[in-house]
């Protein structure tokens, strides 16, 4: 099973107001183990950072000015996540921004769900810990994940923290991780299956199977006087 733990940083909180992605960070997991493969990219947003976003990320327009734009890296990014399950905390936020970026490029690239599935760890945490704070920082504290080095928000750093949080929530394993990447020998023997997006298919019963099914329902009705399936 191939999963990509993903986080983004943006110029503001709302893509509907024209805010853009300024950093993408990804961690690859295969069979719940970090492989050592990552994807990290700063982006030139072509617009100002909102004050709040600049404060929490520490990113400036001067720093981002010589970075590529999203359209320059979109192919590499989509190839990295292709066929995976994206593990995202508050997926509605990140997927909304990524779909906005893809939409600005026209219909050719589609939406994120054309390239990968999505698992929202915020929804998972709310189910596990109802009525409690379930921010990434709160989950780190609750699950014993060390985040003392997190002074500012960064997409790759947050993806690393989310990896440990996700593994802890789903298996009780904290610190699973980044000092124990999957060995090369294990990688060589691990089959990575990249799913191809396709329409769902449906299996239909044969005439003989339908006849046997109806016969069985009739026997149940005859014996009990009534059959829910017959209704």
Q: Can you tell me about this structure?
A:
It is a single chain. The protein is of the alpha/beta class and 231 residues long. It folds into two domains: 2-189, Nucleotidyltransferase, domain 5, CATH 3.30.420.10; 199-231. Helices cover 41% and strands 16% of the residues. The chain contains nine helices and five strands; from the N terminus they run βββαααβαβααααα. The protein has helices at 51-57, 61-64, 70-81, 91-104, 121-128, 136-143, 155-171, 184-189, 207-224, and strands at 2-10, 21-30, 33-42, 85-88, 117-120. A five-stranded mixed beta sheet has the order 3-2-1-4-5. A hairpin with a 2-residue loop joins β2 and β3 (33-42). α6 (136-143) packs across α7 (155-171). The radius of gyration is 23 Å and the shape is globular. The model is unreliable at 172-180 and 183-203 (pLDDT under 50).
């Amino acid at each position: 099973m191939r999963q990509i733990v993903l986080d983004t940083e943006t110029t503001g909180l709302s893509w509907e107001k024209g805010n853009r992605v300024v950093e993408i960070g990804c961690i690859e997991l295969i069979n719940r183990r970090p492989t050592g493969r990552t994807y990290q990219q700063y982006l030139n947003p072509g617009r100002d950072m909102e004050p709040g976003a600049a404060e929490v990320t520490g990113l400036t327009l001067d720093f981002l000015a010589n970075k590529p734009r999203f359209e320059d890296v979109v192919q590499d990014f989509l190839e990295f996540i292709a066929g995976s399950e994206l593990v995202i905390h508050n997926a509605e936020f990140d997927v909304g921004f990524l779909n906005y970026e893809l939409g600005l490029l026209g219909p050719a690239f589609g939406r994120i769900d054309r390239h990968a599935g999505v698992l929202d760890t915020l929804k998972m945490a709310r189910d596990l810990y109802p009525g409690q704070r379930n921010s990434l920082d709160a989950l780190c504290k609750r699950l014993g994940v060390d985040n003392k080095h997190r002074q500012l928000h960064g997409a790759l750093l947050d993806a690393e923290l989310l990896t440990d949080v996700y593994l802890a929530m789903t298996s009780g394993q904290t610190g699973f991780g980044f000092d124990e990447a999957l060995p090369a020998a294990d990688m060589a023997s691990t089959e990575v299956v990249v799913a191809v997006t396709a329409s769902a298919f449906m299996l239909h019963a044969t005439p003989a199977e339908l006849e046997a099914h109806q016969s069985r329902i009739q026997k149940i009705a005859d014996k009990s006087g009534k059959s829910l399936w017959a209704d």
